Fold this protein.
Amino acid sequence: MSCYALFPGLGDFEHVLTVVGLLFVSKTVLQGLWILVRNVRAHLWSRLWNKKLGETYGKWAVVTGSTDGIGKEYARELARRGMNIVLISRTEEKLQKVATEIAEEFGVETEIAVADFIQGRPVFENIAQRLQNKDIGVLVNNVGVMLPHPMEFELASERDMWAHINVNVATVPAMTKLVLPGMLSRGRGAIINLSSLAAAYPIPLMGIYAATKAFVDFFSLALEWEYRGSGITVQTITPGYVSTNMTKFSELVHRPGLFIPTARQFVSHAVHTLGYASCTAGYWAHGILGYLVDTFLNRWFFMYGNYLWNSLLLHNMKKNQASRQR
Ligand SMILES: NC(=O)c1ccc[n+]([C@@H]2O[C@H](COP(=O)([O-])OP(=O)(O)OC[C@H]3O[C@@H](n4cnc5c(N)ncnc54)[C@H](OP(=O)(O)O)[C@@H]3O)[C@@H](O)[C@H]2O)c1
C-alpha cells in the first residue's frame, strides 16, 4: 500500500513530512517505553525480591569512603542484608565508630582499613593484606572528592587537583584489581562504581570533577561488558545531587527534597537496583533528570546551563558568606 492511500488529502511534500514525523514519534515512543520498562524493573520489580546478597555474591562487602555520606549508607544497607563489611576511609576514629555502630545494629562482622587514597599506589598494599583470604562478594567503589565549591581551575589548589586524580580516578581500577581475581575464581561477585550525572558532558567550573566521573563511567561500562557471563555484576551509578558533605557548600543543592535525597534515601533505592540495572541513576527522580538530559539537551546546552547554574551557586554562596560576616 502506498502512503498516498494512507493520507489521500496530502501532497508529495506533506506526505514526506508526515512519514518523517511518524517515524520520529514512533522512535520516541519506543525509546520511552524501553526506558519505562527498564526503570520499572530496576525500581519496582526489584523490590518484590529481597535478594540475599551474601548468598548471591559472597560474604564480605568492601566499601571505600565509608565513614560518611553515600559510602556509610551503602555499608549500613549491605550489613542490613547480612553482609560483613570492610570499611575503608582516611580517618581512624570515624572508621572505628561506624564499624562498631554497624556491628552492633546488624550483628555482622566489621573490619576497618585506614587509607588516604590521595597518596596513590602505596596504600593498596595494606588494603590487599586486609582483604586476603576473604570471600569478597561486593566492592563499592564509592570514595570521591569534589572541589569545595564551583570555581575556575586556576583557583583550585594543587592538593585538590591530585585528590581528584588519585581518589576519584586511580582508586577505582586499583580496588577493582584487588578483588576481581578472587571474584572470577569463585564465579560470583558485584562491583558497584559511583559515577555521577555530572559525567554526561563536560561541566564548566567543575571541570576536573566531571572529567574524573566520566573516567569512572567509561571504565565501569567497559568492565561490565568484558565480564558479562562470568557471574560478576558490574554496576555504574550516576546520581544527581545527594545531600551529603560534598554538597554542603550551598543550601540550593544540600537541602533535602524530591530531587535531592538524603544519603540514606538514595542508597535505600540504589541497593535494590543491584542485579537489575547495569547502569542507573540509583534513585528514581535522578533517573528522570538523566532521561531529560539525554533526550533534550545537547552538549552545548548542557554546558551552558551548568555554567550558569554553577555561577549562580557560587554567587549565592558568596552572598551568604558576606551576610554571615556582617
Ligand atoms: N553527594 C552528591 O551529590 C553526589 C552526586 C553524584 C555522585 N556522588 C559520588 O558519590 C560518592 C560519595 O560521595 P558523598 O557525597 O557521599 O561524599 P562525602 O559525604 O564527602 O563522603 C566522602 C567519604 O570519602 C572519604 N574520603 C574522602 N577523601 C578520602 C581520601 N583521600 N581517602 C580515603 N577516604 C576519603 C571520607 O572519609 P573521611 O570521613 O575520613 O573524610 C568520607 O567517608 C563520590 O564518589 C561522589 O563523587 C556524589
User: Anything to note?
Assistant: The chain has a mean pLDDT of 94.
